[in-house]
């Protein structure tokens, strides 16, 4: 039989649902994200966006349905295997940059590669390069407390995408705490980097100006609506 030439999607969720007791906190979602695609996930507060992202990064197991990430089905993987895939191939940014206050900015960014066994000097050199890409050249020696909110979030982006093995970026309201100018900067950096490095992006946002810069928008329904999330 001829093999299909259609590339595997970066993400494939089929009827992925999360229930807690009687409550449905993520109504069944079908979602397909192509490789290199930038998808905005929109929906009212409490509609399950964070829960869905947790399922995508393997931190939560859906109570029904399936999740396939970068060609690997989570259903057949141990939590250790999921953690390994997450560390190697998935960049994660949240609304709060969560930089460690006891490390300087470059050390914060470099940490993931040091954990992976890279010599510290090499990891720090790469971290400084990554900081330059996000407009923070020279900020590596600062403590996180000396960065503005927008700068800290850009450092978090540099950290999330530091490894050249990252294929998928998962971002949970990464611009929610930023002013208009920083929203624009951060959005352009995310979309631009995704284009340059062929990284797929799943980005939850309430901000239509951010969503409109993405390739496509998928809207969530309220968590108590048991029908499936629809394509926009
Ligand atoms: N551990 C939990 N126990 C009970 N309910 C939970 C738990 N985690 C999430 N929920 C509920 O599940 C629903 C979906 O939450 P989730 O955080 O995924 O929504 P969201 O769309 O990301 O919201 P927001 O836009 O406000 O961040 C909410 O009603 C929330 O209260």
Write structural notes for this entry:
Residues 11-232 form the ABC transporter domain. It comes from Sanguibacter suaedae. The chain has helices at 49-56, 79-89, 105-115, 120-133, 149-160, 180-197, 208-211; strands at 11-20, 23-33, 38-42, 64-69, 72-73, 90-93, 168-172, 200-204, 216-219, 230-231. The protein is an alpha/beta fold and 232 residues long. The protein has a single domain (11-231), classed as P-loop containing nucleotide triphosphate hydrolases (Rossmann fold, 3-Layer(aba) Sandwich). β1 (11-20) and β2 form a beta hairpin. The two termini are 35 Å apart. The mean pLDDT is 92. Adenosine-5'-triphosphate (ATP) is lined by residues 20, 25, 43, 45-51, 223.
Which helices and strands occur, and which strands form pairs?
Blueprint: E1 11-20, E2 23-33, E3 38-42, H1 49-56, E4 64-69, E5 72-73, H2 79-89, E6 90-93, H3 105-115, H4 120-133, H5 149-160, E7 168-172, H6 180-197, E8 200-204, H7 208-211, E9 216-219, E10 230-231
Parallel strand pairs: 3-8, 3-9, 6-7, 7-8
Antiparallel strand pairs: 1-2, 1-4, 4-5, 9-10
The protein binds adenosine-5'-triphosphate (ATP).
The site of adenosine-5'-triphosphate has 11 residues, from helix 1.
Protein name: ATP-binding cassette domain-containing protein
Organism: Sanguibacter suaedae
Keywords: ATP-binding, Nucleotide-binding
């Amino acid at each position: 039989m001829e093999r299909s030439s259609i590339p595997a999607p970066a993400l494939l969720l089929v009827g992925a649902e999360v229930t807690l007791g009687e409550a449905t906190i993520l109504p069944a979602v079908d979602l397909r994200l192509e490789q290199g695609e930038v998808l905005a996930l929109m929906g009212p507060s409490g509609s399950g966006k964070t829960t869905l992202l947790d399922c995508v990064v393997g931190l939560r197991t859906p109570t029904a349905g399936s999740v396939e990430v970068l060609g690997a089905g989570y259903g057949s993987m141990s939590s250790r295997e999921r953690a390994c895939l997450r560390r190697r191939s998935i960049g994660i940014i949240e609304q709060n940059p969560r930089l460690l206050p006891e490390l300087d900015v470059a050390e914060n960014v470099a940490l993931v590669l040091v954990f992976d066994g890279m010599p510290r000097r090499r990891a720090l050199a790469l971290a400084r390069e990554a900081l330059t890409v996000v407009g923070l050249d020279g900020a590596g020696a600062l403590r996180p407390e000396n960065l503005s909110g927008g700068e800290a979030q850009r450092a978090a982006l540099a950290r999330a995408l530091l490894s050249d093995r990252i294929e998928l970026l998962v971002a949970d309201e990464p611009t929610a705490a930023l002013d208009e100018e920083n929203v624009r900067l951060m959005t352009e950096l995310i979309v631009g980097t995704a284009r340059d490095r062929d990284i797929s992006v799943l980005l939850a946002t309430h901000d239509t100006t951010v969503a409109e810069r993405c390739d496509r928008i998928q809207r969530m329904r309220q968590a108590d609506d048991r029908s499936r999330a629809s394509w926009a």
